[in-house]
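ERR on first pass: missing label on line 2. Operator R.T. fixed the label and resubmitted. Corrected input:
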Amino acid sequence: MRRLFEKESSIPPAARAGVLPDHVFCPFCRAEDTYCEAAFGTAHAYAQFYCRACRTPFEWIKWEEHAPSHDLPAFFK
Amino acid sequence: MTTFKSAAELPAQTREAVHALLLALADSKLFLGFHYGEWTFGTPALEASIAACSMAQDEFGHLRLLHACLNAQFQDHPQDLLERRAFTEFANVPSLDQPLQHWADFVAVNFLTDGALTVILTALQRSAFEPVANFVDKMVEEEKHHVRNAQGWFRALAASNAQTKTALAEACRRVLSATLEWLGPVEHTMMASLKNDAIINASWQELQQRFFDWIGPFAEQQNLNFGMHKDDGHWQASSLPDFSQWNANNRRCAATQPNEQLLYHLRGSKNAIFKLGEA
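pass 2 clean. output:
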């Protein structure tokens, strides 16, 4: 299981671009040494991150600014 | 704007058109949910499995909403819709008839087929037919995630090596043709009645154009051609299906149908003896 989480983010950068931040603060140890592991978590609204400092996976709630409307086609507007 | 609180209030031709459209959306979401669910395993990356699984749940949720509406407004029982229809009656997008063999097929269906269905859903927002207007916003909100997932994978595969890019272009070509077949002839009277009674917010031609104006430039940005071109400032499909034999009930040009094994699996026929309430 550790091997799974110690790799670099496997989300294609192009797929991630403009939607999710590269790293966020860990909610457990406040370290910034985190990376995005998965674009979806247990729900669409969550992304999965991993903290290298305390080696803890955590879910991060996506904010609207990280799911910008410019990423969507015009017919949604 | 005149609104309709139930199907009984709709003019006869429009009622028939709404019924056919809801059935076609429900059938497509049934098969889409199945294919997404099938790809819970075997994806190129773990997070793609999670996304596929999440999208399957969304599609089955949408199916339930559509079946509930069909039941309440048109007296179609969900079990009859799923289990007591001939294979040839299913009005799903034909790109969903067969198993999705490769990841490129999945991405093409996610991008083009799911995308086309979403264009139709956005046209149903604030529909004059209230039973649909009441639930379609929720579906559109969830579909935004599907579009983001499709665009992300499309970009990633298109930026990959030549082999991957070719596989994606071929899959998109097949899926686009089947999706256009399902969309049907834009001048059909059934689609016209939907617009005339404000069931949808634009003509079918405009909806098809919205679809083209999204996928055309997007594919061009990734330098991938799968049969779209710009004509007089508007994006168009380079070839359209022959609609002379188009059947408005199952939205097909020929006598095709979903794969029998796939439907057998989807219906849970193998486990029929365990179904509750069917002793």
